[in-house]
Amino acid sequence: MASNRFLKTSLASLSLVSIGAVSALVGTQIPSNQFQPPAIAQLSRSSNDDNFVSEAVDRTGPAVVRINATRARVTSRGEQVQQGTGSGFILRSNGLVVTNAHVVSGASRVSVTLRDGREYTGRVLGADRQNDVAVVKIEANNLPAVTLGNSDQLRPGEWAIAIGNPLGLDNTVTVGIVSGTERSARAFGLRGSQPFIQTDAAINPGNSGGPLLNQSGEVIGINTAIIRGAQGIGFAIPINRATQIANQLTAQAGV
């Protein structure tokens, strides 16, 4: 019950950055004084290299996917079908994909499209709605997978690169910095202690579930939230916490 109460509070207060085709945006938005969710080789180049962003994207971009979720809802007027779009990334080359729980929760059908255009039916292995992490399995092997960074070692001022599908614009890249670490939901009036990475890399509806990278192209977080009415205030789930949850969900599914 406590988990459900937290979820309801979170969904009412967070602006989750995924897209719905029926209602232009999925997720509730609130004033800016409250919180709302909207094998890659390591780079050898320094952060002073003008091409470090494109290098990071070249190495990690193939592992970023588009996720389309279909939801059927019965109303007094009959059945309504809603389409939602988000992002994700391939955690393991055998087809394990990580995204936000709000991207796939309640979906009757999930499809995963790779950057090269291949499309697969996805099976949701599990979703932790309180922490907003989900794992999707596609039947494929030898896929490009991301390399993980260490979110516990992040410092404000480090480079941050976001890749995703905002507003249906596939493989969009934005860049900024890590603006803050260990941002707690409680600081925004919510229950729970989920920490977030704050970034000024542009995050928009459709970016949900996509990776936030460091300058070496390593995943440091999962993009998940924005504050409406503010500029350059987005949030990502730290990858150390997210992968811990993803591993638990995968183990529970027996995969």
Characterization of this structure:
The chain is globular and about 50 Å long. With about 260 residues, the chain is α+β, with helices and mostly antiparallel strands. It has helices at about 1-15, 50-60, 100-105, 240-250, and strands spanning about 15, 20, 25, 65-75, 80-90, 95-100, 110-115, 120-130, 135, 160-165, 170-185, 195-200, 210-215, 220-225, 235-240. About 15% of the residues lie in helices and about 40% in strands.
Instruction: Note poorly predicted spans.
Output: 1-13, 21-47
Biggest sheet details = 6 strands, antiparallel, barrel
Helix/sheet category: alpha+beta
Name the helicity range. 10-25%
Specify the overall morphology: globular
Task: Give keywords.
alpha+beta; about 260 residues; six-stranded antiparallel β-barrel; globular; 15 strands; 4 helices
Q: What is the compact description of this entry?
A:
With 255 residues, this protein is an alpha+beta fold. The protein is 15% helix and 38% strand.
Compile the SSE list and pairings:
Blueprint: H1 2-13, E1 15-16, E2 18-20, E3 25-26, H2 52-60, E4 64-75, E5 78-92, E6 96-99, H3 101-104, E7 109-113, E8 119-128, E9 133-137, E10 159-164, E11 172-184, E12 195-199, E13 211-213, E14 219-226, E15 234-238, H4 239-252
Antiparallel strand pairs: 1-14, 2-3, 2-5, 4-5, 4-7, 5-6, 6-9, 7-8, 8-9, 10-11, 10-13, 11-12, 12-15, 13-14, 14-15
